[in-house]
Write a structure and sequence with these properties.
The protein is mainly alpha-helical. It has one domain. The chain has a two-stranded antiparallel ribbon. It is globular.
């Protein structure tokens, strides 16, 4: 049954990320989700969480490998910029897909949003994914 544990972990992480995005839309100015129903809101949040996961899974390793010198030079602070840009990219892809999720600008919305979503997802994942 290892496949069930793997699937459970992915679903927990997806739900935690969608919840983190929802909280970010409520707490961080410049991050919005303009939906008309609860079903549309939940669907949009889950799809944005999937987009965010794919963007991070595909681009982050490439960026870290190519830009490892910048990470060393800035003592890792460049990660704030990279995560903010990936958050903005997620917003752009969501817009292209017709999802009602939008991030207004890089600072503070994208950077704070990326930090907030990462922190909430990490905490929820640690609490919910106990075996």
């Amino acid at each position: 049954m290892p496949a069930m544990g793997f699937l459970k972990g992915i679903l927990i992480r997806l739900a935690a990320t969608a919840f983190a995005f929802w909280l970010a839309t409520l707490l961080i100015p410049g991050i919005s989700l303009d939906s008309s129903s609860a079903t549309e809101t939940v669907t949009a949040l889950v799809l944005v969480a999937v987009i965010f996961g794919v963007v991070n899974a595909v681009l982050q390793p490439i960026i870290k490998t190519v830009g490892c010198g910048f990470y060393l030079l800035t003592l890792g602070l460049i990660a704030l910029v990279v995560n903010g840009l990936l958050f903005l990219l997620t917003s752009w892809i969501a817009g292209q897909a017709g999802l009602p999720f939008h991030v207004d600008g890089f600072w503070p919305a994208a950077v704070l949003g990326a930090l907030f979503v990462s922190l909430v997802t990490w905490i929820l994942g640690a609490v919910l994914d106990r075996d």
